[in-house]
Amino acid sequence: MDSIYSDMEESEKKVAAFLKKLKLRWLYEFPVFVYDEKSRPRVWTPDFYIPKLGMYIEVCGSEGFNYKYREDIYRKNGFYVIFLHLYKEPEKWKTYLVNRIMEIEEERHSEIGKMILSLS
Fold first, then answer.
1. Which of 39, 59, 73, 83 lies at a 20 to 30 A Cα distance from 95?
2. How is the beta sheet containing 55-59 ordered, strand by strand?
């Protein structure tokens, strides 16, 4: 019987191992419903979904793919997706990932603070 790892690229396996080290359970290629730039419905599958954090991770493996387009669409639809370019920064992606998680959490905390203040 094949495991989920048999469908993964080597870079995705590295991210999966790091998430395991961080004790973050993940779902592989969890579908996301988005509207594209022309408001057409689409279903995309970022590489990892972290339920505990409500965040997605896209492992970027090709310089020829338009990740900026995907990033814009995810943002437009309100999804937190972290794009990891392992091939560009082979030694820095782990730090980048942790820093992005912290930035997103701080942003959420700030938004909740504003919401609470607006109630007073």
1. 73
2. 27-28, 48-50, 55-59, 81-84
Nearest to 15 by CA among 75, 79, 97, 74: 97
Instruction: Provide the terminal-to-terminal Cα distance of the chain, rounded to the nearest Å.
Output: 57
Can you give the pTM of this predicted structure?
Answer: 0.87
The domain that holds 62 is classified in CATH as 3.40.960.10
Six-digit token string for 22: 């961080």
Tell me which residue has tokens 């492992």: 59
d(CA 16, CA 18): 5
DSSP 8-state code for residue 8: S
Please give the tally of structural domains in the chain.
Answer: 1
Give the DSSP H/E element, type plus range, for residue 68: helix 67-76
The tokens describing 102, both together, are: 């912290």
Positive or negative: CA dihedral 16, 100, 86, 35: positive
Residue found by looking up tokens 């495991």 in the block: 3
Domain of 47 in residue numbering reads as: 4-118
